[in-house]
Design goal:
9% strand; three-stranded antiparallel sheet; 252 residues; single chain
């Protein structure tokens, strides 16, 4: 389990150390483990912060959230509750370690002097800018962009592709999550909160759905890439053959 100091926890949750302290003082966040004078947080604290953020974005006050969390945990196995909390709030995306550069270095790496495409990366969560520093959240994707630049692809062209892919995959993910939600509502009713053995069952269901979703998209993309490559390569070769002089064909 990952360990965090308070500033590291706040950064991972996209909030501030001040908010972390405030949530802890109001009982929304469990206290950290003490090591001397240092407070150490872990992934359960990060999951709780993400849950709080989701509820705050829905317009609930910290008092409402506190009452909900107290009611949720009351009389339940805390380990199972925390397991479900992590399944609900932990990111389903995985990336390599982040990479930080100066904004100027980032623009140079992208071949983006005016910063327009870097701003698009920020919009899609692939980068963030803090002062004069730029952090790439998915260095593998950045490496792919810069590698293709050697073959004449521009960052604008690659970002256009990324936007279309994002729209398509976002639609798929919305459909899958909506299917799970409708299944739960149809079976248990609106606002159902699992209890007892259902907590563990709900956690396992979400974990299975997560694995299935990622594997399905990966597999489908691989197969459709193969099929479309064959089709478009065939079309390309037809044109190449038609453009080949007959004398060249005969000599071959």
């Amino acid at each position: 389990m990952t360990e965090y100091r308070i500033d590291e926890l706040a950064r991972a949750a996209g909030t501030t150390s001040r908010n972390v302290r405030a949530y802890r003082e109001r009982g929304l966040l469990p206290p950290p483990q003490k090591r001397g004078r240092l407070g150490i947080y872990d992934d359960t604290h990060l999951a709780r912060l993400r849950l709080i953020d989701i509820l705050l974005q829905r317009g609930y006050t910290t008092t409402h959230i506190s009452d909900f969390i107290d009611g949720w945990e009351s009389g339940k196995d805390l380990t199972e509750v925390l397991g479900l909390q992590r399944a609900l709030t932990e990111p389903w995306s995985t990336t390599d370690d982040e990479m930080s550069l100066s904004v100027t270095e980032a623009r140079d790496a992208l071949g983006d002097p005016d910063g327009e495409q870097l701003a698009r990366l920020v919009t899609y969560g692939l980068a963030r800018i803090e002062g004069d520093r730029c952090t790439f959240t998915d260095p593998k994707l950045l490496q792919g962009f810069t590698s293709l630049a050697e073959y004449g692809f521009g960052i604008r062209e690659l970002m256009d592709i990324h936007e279309r892919m994002y729209a398509a995959v976002d639609g798929i993910s919305k459909d899958m999550i909506s299917t799970v939600k409708h299944h739960i509502v149809a079976r248990y009713g609106e606002g159902w909160i699992p209890e007892g053995e259902d907590v563990l069952r709900a956690t396992r269901m979400l974990q299975i759905m997560r694995t299935l979703a990622v594997d399905s998209v990966h597999s489908l993309l691989g197969r459709t890439l193969d099929r479309n490559l064959q089709e478009q390569l065939g079309e390309y070769l037809e044109v190449a053959i038609d453009n080949t002089p007959r004398s060249d064909r005969n000599s071959a």
